[in-house]
Design goal:
Elements lengths: L2 H9 L21 E7 L9 H11 L4 H6 L6 H22 L9 E2 L5 E2 L6 E7 L2 E7 L6 E7 H5 L16 H8 L4 H22 L10 E4 L11 E2 L3 E4 L2 E2 L2 E9 L2 E8 L9 E4 L3 H8 L3
Parallel strand pairs: 1-13
Antiparallel strand pairs: 1-5, 2-3, 4-5, 6-12, 7-9, 8-11, 9-10, 11-12
Helix pairs in contact: 6-7
Length: about 290
């Protein structure tokens, strides 16, 4: 028995059943830019039969080749986050493109950026520390980039002297701003705020962190926190010394989690991205309601 047949037999559901456009009322498209994110930590914490059953249900919604790709992950947390990222992508493609779930096909650029061919919209994905997000520019196919960082997760194994490890990432001015704080944790939080902004922008334009990150310089970067300023949108950016007309937003999703969203101001009328925490069960219910 080959792996594909074995996986299908194990899960008992074949993606070819999903013949209709998936309508998920909880996925609201009431803004030009929308970020939907899910907390998936319950799917890998512990080994309960309930979490195993939920994991199997979610996997069964994917086409066979994507199911098999999940086997390459050695850690359950990585597999879960990738799985949910794929589910969010297929849900967005089916809804916004108006196609059946089974016809949703994710393609990737040479740099690995996912998309749907000939889409009327643009999207980008990110996950870290158990939160998985998809950012969508719903009209005009203008580019969007999103990045999530859990500061505690990112720094849990850092060694002494870590503050000197980023000279190939940040400009001299950025470094001065980051290190101007005296509190070690605040320095880490500010460092990853700059990091998330850089990653969101480079992901939006499709080059990721392969580019010269020091050519992208941010100023007027705010400090965000769930207990205070939880959204900030006044950040400015220069690329190779020239200002660019983009909107950069920062969101505090949890005490230790920040998210950056980058999109071009071209044809942008609204001044804030809509952010919504979603329940993955809504995807399960919607897909199975059309089978």
């Amino acid at each position: 028995m080959n792996d594909e047949v074995e996986m299908s037999a194990l899960l008992g559901v074949h993606p070819a059943q999903f013949l209709a456009v998936v309508d998920i009322p909880e996925f609201t498209w009431d803004a030009e830019c929308v970020v939907l994110y899910a907390d998936v930590r319950s799917l890998w914490l512990g080994n309960s039969s309930a979490s195993e059953e939920s994991f199997a249900k979610y996997v069964s919604l994917l086409p066979a080749y994507e199911q098999l790709a999940l086997k390459k992950y050695h850690f359950r947390s990585d597999a879960v986050q990738h799985l949910v990222s794929l589910l969010l992508q297929h849900a967005v493609i089916s809804q916004l493109q108006g196609i059946a779930w089974k016809d949703s096909r994710i393609t990737r650029s040479t740099s690995g950026r996912p998309s749907y061919q000939s889409a009327r919209f643009d999207y980008n994905v990110s996950h870290h520390g158990g939160l998985v997000a998809i950012g969508v520019r719903t009209v005009n196919s203008k580019r969007i980039g999103v990045d999530i960082v859990d500061i505690d997760e990112a720094t849990k194994n850092w060694r002494s002297g870590w503050e000197n490890d980023f000279h190939d990432v940040f400009t001299e001015n950025e470094y001065k701003t980051i290190l101007s704080e005296r509190d070690s944790y605040k320095i880490k939080r500010r460092l990853f705020t700059f990091w998330a902004l850089k990653e969101a922008y480079t992901k939006a334009i499709g080059v990721g962190l392969l580019s010269d990150l020091k050519s992208v310089e941010f100023t007027n970067v705010g400090d965000i926190d769930v207990s205070g300023l939880d959204h900030y949108s006044k950040t400015l950016c220069k690329v190779n010394g020239e200002p660019i007309d983009w909107r950069f937003e920062l969101f505090a999703l949890e005490k230790t989690v920040i998210m950056a969203v980058a999109t071009s101001n071209d044809d942008l009328l609204e001044n804030k991205t809509s952010v919504k925490l979603i329940n993955l069960q809504d995807i399960i219910k919607a897909v199975h309601s059309v089978t």
